[in-house]
TrEMBL record:
Gene3D superfamilies: 3.40.50.20, ATP-grasp fold, A domain, ATP-grasp fold, B domain. The gene is ddl. It is an enzyme of class 6 (ligase). InterPro entries: ATP-grasp, ATP_grasp_subdomain_1, D-Ala_lig_Van_CS, D_ala_D_ala, Dala_Dala_lig_C, Dala_Dala_lig_N, PreATP-grasp_dom_sf. This is D-alanine--D-alanine ligase. Keywords: ATP-binding, Cell shape, Cell wall biogenesis/degradation, Cytoplasm, Ligase, Nucleotide-binding, Peptidoglycan synthesis. Its main location: cytoplasm. It comes from Pedobacter flavus.
Amino acid sequence: MKKNIALLTGGTTGEWVVSVKSASTIAQNIDLEKYNVYRIMVNEDSWFYEPADSIKIEVDKNDFSLTVNGQKIKFDGVFIVIHGSPGEDGKLQGYFDMLNIPYTTCNALTSAITMNKGYTKAVVSNINELNVAKSVHLFKDQPHNEEKVLTNLNLPFFVKPNNGGSSIGMSKVKSASELTAALEKAFNEDDQILVEEFVEGREFSIGAFQYKGEVIVLPTTEVKTTSEFFDFEAKYTPGATEEITPGNMNEEEKERVERIIGEVYKELGCRGVVRVDYFLQKDTGDFYFIEINTIPGQTITSFIPQQIKAYGLSLKEFYSMIMEETLG
């Protein structure tokens, strides 16, 4: 018997447009012989299912159900593909935990922690062979933020919202005169920001997921961008970056990275598919953790679909594995 799956998309941040594209990829590739898929839009005003143009059916949030043609539909599981709030910060996860409905992502606690870049770095910093760039954690409207940054960090550095993804609100600062504008840009996106010293090296992004108790680390993607750094436009504009999958690592680097990523997945208590961004430092080859994304993009230009292909799976097989692991 087919399982009813809610595919949640949208959200309340600027990342909703990426979420909608990700949901389209999943909807086109999920196994419809196994699952009845209902794409549900979540925004600040409402949660609704849109079976046809101009027809919107509101979700009953009391039990997360739909009534379609007089029939009440309840869900066996939820595929959350909302980047940013409320899909990636633990809010929806807590809601579904209370309703006892399984979902594809990390749990509420892990989602909340990993949404905060500063807290995440504190959790993973004790992992063997993992390094983190020196950083300063700032809060909006606190005095002397600029002084704190310039006193404690060496230029250049990155300024980024502490909660968020897709590099929205992020800047690279190469001189002290650029700092004020960079802080304002980041604080427009979040009340907390993280300023990190620049680590020179090769940038990579790598996916991992759990299936039948085993953490599977996917082939990594090496990122070479023509932009100053890997920002929102570089991420989602075809041709703006050179993305090499599998990335160019020697056997020692490959084995070490896979070992570290497995430890990151376990240390943070992850579930479902996640993506970790990292540097291999120039000259040393040391692993520097950048951030983890617990609901990585699934758009046509996203890394996970590239890495799934390189691993030797179809997206249909991959999404079935994710749903099997979710539903138990």
